[in-house]
Amino acid sequence: MDDHNSGRRLKRAELSKVTGCHLETIRYYEKTGMMPDPRRSKTGYRLYDETHVSRLRFILRARDLGFSIEDIRGLLTLIDGQLQTCSEVKQRTESHLADVRTKIDDLKRIEQVLAETAAQCSGKDVPECPVLEALFHV
Amino acid sequence: MDDHNSGRRLKRAELSKVTGCHLETIRYYEKTGMMPDPRRSKTGYRLYDETHVSRLRFILRARDLGFSIEDIRGLLTLIDGQLQTCSEVKQRTESHLADVRTKIDDLKRIEQVLAETAAQCSGKDVPECPVLEALFHV
DNA sequence: GATACAGTCTGTAGCTGCTACAGATTAAAG
DNA sequence: CTTTAATCTGTAGCAGCTACAGACTGTATC
């Protein structure tokens, strides 16, 4: 209505809808500086544009890929300062990838132990249980 | 000194040491009912015995195996009511195992995406980066 | 016994990453 | 014009701990 050039502005609920991000989380990301303060209407309503949509999607996707909030802040800082280089980002990605692999290995070990122990269970209605034994006595 | 029959009692720091559980976490587990209130000395110091050691180890091991606090509370409730059966415990363990496997699969997908995307990186000192592209534009 | 220092007690606040709610204001719909 | 929906702000709550302040013990040394 009042925007002469750029595309239309979104209100918070709309941004929430198009990104899938929880309504309150948007405000939280603004408060913590991950999202910039948006323009406001005369009456104080937040008005978002495409840059906000992209940035929020960036955050959510990074989150989906398991990047920590700290990592994401780091990437955003690079971008905001236009200091990002493929070299740097690749390095950070590979570091995160290493963390993910460690986590997978940890979980696989857990899987092993659980599967092995459960396999020893009779599964009967008796109080003795190899799982509980394992937890109590190493 | 004042215990005529049972083994010696541990103070909180000692329980912490033998189990590896953080000092304050012990108090937290008591507050939340996962650990029973221990006996007290005349002057109010907590005095733990072997049953506390076992129970705390149980909690910590279950935690290490990725059981949620809720799951652990559930197991402890069974045990406390002497209602535990191998059948029931096996079932819960297998349910948790399924969760672990789901988690592993999720992480593997993440690993894939990260590895593939990072592989497209030139790794040079240029601002364009496939990782950032992927995060910004799907 | 005096003194010093460590250990313990309690209640409460802090942390992360959100999510929810209360009370006021504004927008949209009928 | 009235009702309902959306938004605003500040603040509180959640899990699962962890940390700290201020008071009280326990032990060691002199």
From TrEMBL, chains A, B:
PANTHER family: HTH-TYPE TRANSCRIPTIONAL REGULATOR ZNTR, REDOX-CYCLING DRUG-SENSING TRANSCRIPTIONAL ACTIVATOR SOXR. Pfam families: MerR_1. Residues 14-78 form the HTH merR-type domain. InterPro entries: DNA-bd_dom_put_sf, MerR-type_HTH_dom, MerR_fam. GO terms for molecular function: DNA binding; DNA-binding transcription factor activity. The lineage of its organism: Bacteria, Pseudomonadati, Pseudomonadota, Alphaproteobacteria, Rhodospirillales. The keyword DNA-binding applies. It comes from Thalassospira profundimaris. Keywords: DNA-binding. This is MerR family transcriptional regulator. SUPFAM superfamilies: Putative DNA-binding domain.
